[in-house]
Amino acid sequence: MSDQPTKLLERSGVVALAKPSGLATQAPPGFPSVESWLRGLLPAGAYLGVPHRLDRAVSGVLLMATTPRAARQLSRQFERRQVTKTYVAIVAAADGTQLASGAAVEWRDRIAKRPDLAEACVVGPEDPAGKEAVTIARTLGEVAPGRWLVELAPVTGRMHQLRVQAAARGMPVVGDTLYGGPMLSVGPTLETVGPADSRQQPIALHALSIRFCDPDAAGEIFVTAALPPHWPAAAAALLPMV
Asked: pLDDT confidence of 190, banded at 50, 70, 90?
């Protein structure tokens, strides 16, 4: 697996990158991150804004801004839910479970961060810490016995939203041991194999595409990121046409 981002597009002060799993979006000085990698490519003192983030364990499209205007425009679009994000995940269904392919369903929950922990959970309507989380989910097909590819379009942006909502429905993301998922292999058969350092362990959640408004011109920008090479070929074959 690559441990470095790759540039997908650079336009109107926006840099779209393909982030590998295991690499933080931002990190303290001296630790690797997408931000420090991109900063190393820019002239000394150049502006770099971070209006968008992906969890360290997640791969896929990530947006950075190289002008204050682009950073402001993107931040405003995210706040107003004007950015369309599409993820795909391989989830682990219970033995014998058959997920219906095709039809989109709405996942609506209230999610709260667990006190003093870097994780979240679904809570009841009476919990004041809970915030509404909405995702449109669609099952694309089975990629291996008990492993299903799902398409996830988050409407809101809560902490670990997709991971928590999938786990709450009894189908945690493969590799996401934090929320009960089985380990993910780095090979084509999804065997239980992974790096010794759990922080580097990938999960099968990938930011496939993002659509946003050009900060400097009329029109939309649409960017996609190919699936990581360690994902099974059966997943790529099930991806929707874009």
From this structure: low
Structural contact between residues 5 and 20, judged by C-beta atoms closer than 8 angstroms: yes
Residue partners of 67: CB distance under 8 A and separation at least 6: 13, 47, 49, 215
177 phi and psi angles, rounded to 5 deg: -65, -20
Q: How far is CA 12 from the centre of its chain?
A: 24
CATH of the domain at 183: 3.30.2350.10
Distance CA 82, CA 61 (A): 16
What are the pLDDT digits (tens) for 98-155?
677 778 999 999 999 999 888 999 999 999 999 999 999 999 999 999 999 999 999 9
**CA 102 – CA 89 distance, rounded (Å):** 15
Greatest CA separation for the chain: 57
d(CA 215, CA 12): 6
Residues 6 or more apart from 29 whose CB is under 8 A from it? Answer: 36
Active site residue 127: no
Out of 55, 127, 214, 216, pick the active-site residue.
55
Rounded to whole angstroms, the Cα distance separating 94 from 21 reads: 25
Helix (H) or strand (E) holding 234: helix 233-238
Band (pLDDT 50/70/90 cuts) for residue 184 is confident
In-domain check, residue 191: yes
User: What pTM was computed for the model?
Assistant: 0.91
> How many structural domains is the chain composed of?
1
Instruction: Evaluate whether 226 touches 235 at the Cβ level (below 8 Å).
Output: no
